[in-house]
Amino acid sequence: MKEGKAMGASLEDRFDVAIVGSGIVGLGAAYAAVRRGLRVVVVDRTERPVGATIRNFGHLCIGAQDGAARRYGEASRSIWLRLAADAGFWARESGTLVVARAEDELALLEEAAHAEAARGASGIRLLTAAEITAQAPVRAEVARGGAHVAGDLQVNPREAAGAIVRHLAARGVEFRFRTSVAAVRTGLVQTTRGDIAASDVVVAVNHDLDQLLPEVAERAGVIRCALDMMRVSAELRLPLPAPLLTGWSLVRYRRFAELGTASALRERLYAERPELAALDLNQMYTQLPDGTLLLGDSHHRAVQPDPFQPEAAFDAYLAEAEALFDIRGIRIRERWQGVYAAASGEFLVEEVAPRVLALAATTGIGMTTGLGLAEIETSRVFGWGGGAAGAASASGPAVVAVPAGPAGAAGSAALHASAGSIGGETTAAEGGTAQEEDA
Question: Which of 96, 213, 322, 380 has the fewest CB atoms found within 10 Å of its own CB?
Answer without folding.
Answer: 322
